Structure formats: C-alpha cells, structure tokens
Amino acid sequence: MKKGTLLLSVILLLMGLAGCMAEKETLTADENEKILKVNDTLYYGTEETGPMGDADAVEGYIQDTVEAGVVPVENGTSNFGCVGNPYTYDFGDGWIMVFMEDEAYHIFYAEE
Predict the structure, then answer these.
(1) What would you report as the CA-atom Rg of the chain, rounded to the nearest whole angstrom?
(2) 104: domain range?
(3) In Å, how far are 9, 10, 15, 27, 78 from 21, measured between CA atoms?
C-alpha cells in the first residue's frame, strides 16, 4: 500500500511541475500603453494621427486582445481592444497606423 501511495504522489508531483513549466510568462507594460503585435514586432501607440490613404495599405485586422497592461505575444493581438479594426503595413519606416475607437488612424512605432 505504501508503494502505491508513493508512486501516486510522485506522478501528481510530476504532473504539477509539467503544468507550471507549460504556462507562458506574462510580460507587463504600463497600464495606459497601447501595444499591437504584427509580424513578430511590437508596435507602441501614440496620440499622433494621420490619413489612412490607400485601402491597399491595410495589412490586416486586430484578431484578439489581452488585458490592458499586458504585452501581446501573438501576432494580430492588441492590449487595447479594437478587435476587427484594420492596421496598415510597415513599409520599412518602423511605424504602422491603427484605426482606433475615436475613428482616427493612430500612428504606432516599432519597438526599439
């Protein structure tokens, strides 16, 4: 009976350790910092706005969101909501534009 209890304890301990190791580390940011991850790059929001321009400039749409203050880890994910809103291509200048709730395109700069 002791061997069975010991074996069960070891199995439960190993399962618990495996579960802890499988959890992703959550990176945090300032609660008010708007961040969008696109093509494995983090883009940080500004109050700067600009014209949308050509509809062919749309790269994609925000697919998912995480809580404010959390750094997104998946492409197409923001930490400010706006799921379904479009964002533009980064044409090599290190910034994109994101359509926000105030119905303006805000400039987001790539992380440095």
Answers:
(1) 21
(2) 27-110
(3) 19, 17, 10, 16, 25
Average pLDDT over residues 69-95: 95
Under 8 Å CB-to-CB from 69, ≥6 apart: which residues? 28, 29, 30, 31, 33, 79
Residue 17 lies in a domain: no
Taking Cα atoms as reference points, which of 35, 40, 41, 47 lies closest to residue 80?
35
Tell me how many domains the chain contains. Answer: 1
Q: What is the pLDDT of residues 2-12, one digit of tens each?
A: 665 655 565 65
- The single-letter DSSP state of residue 57 is G
Question: Which one has a higher pLDDT value, 27 or 86?
Answer: 86
